[in-house]
Design a protein that fits this description.
Layout (H helix, E strand, L loop, with lengths): L1 H7 L3 H57 L3 H6 L3 E2 L5 E9 L2 E8 L6 E8 L2
Antiparallel strand pairs: 1-2, 2-3, 3-4
Organism: Alkalihalophilus lindianensis
Protein name: Type II secretion system protein
Keywords: Membrane, Transmembrane, Transmembrane helix
């Protein structure tokens, strides 16, 4: 009787191990892809926040330059390109090889309109 019971249980442990390996093999790619997607989303959100801060810094710089500069010549001293007789000033700043932003000030002599456009190369 004992011999018959042992014969029936042969391979049971191997079957359990193979089943566990199969279940892990099925769920592992799903978990790994979710983790990778989370890290990609985090990096994208971090990049968006940094671009927003850069945009705010550009606006502050342009406002300060407008307040301190009493002429187009002084505005050029802040790094802006100003054409004679033009009511616009512009500047492009490269933060690194892939990130830059462009500052455009319109209506210098009246109520200025400041536009900061960040750009990131893929």
């Amino acid at each position: 009787m004992k011999m018959k019971m042992i014969k029936n249980q042969r391979g049971y442990a191997l079957l359990i191990v193979l089943l566990i390996i199969t279940v892990i093999g099925i769920f592992a790619p799903i978990l790994i892809s979710n983790l990778m997607n989370s890290s990609i989303q985090f990096e994208k959100a971090e990049q968006d926040i940094q671009l927003q801060k850069v945009k705010e810094m550009g606006e502050m710089y342009a406002e300060r330059a407008l307040v301190n500069a009493s002429s187009n010549q002084e505005l050029r001293g802040y790094g802006f390109d100003v054409s004679e007789g033009s009511d616009q000033a512009s500047m492009t700043i490269d933060l690194d090889p892939t990130t830059r932003f462009h500052i455009l000030i319109e209506n210098i002599n009246g109520t200025p309109n400041i536009t900061v456009t960040p750009y990131v190369e893929p």
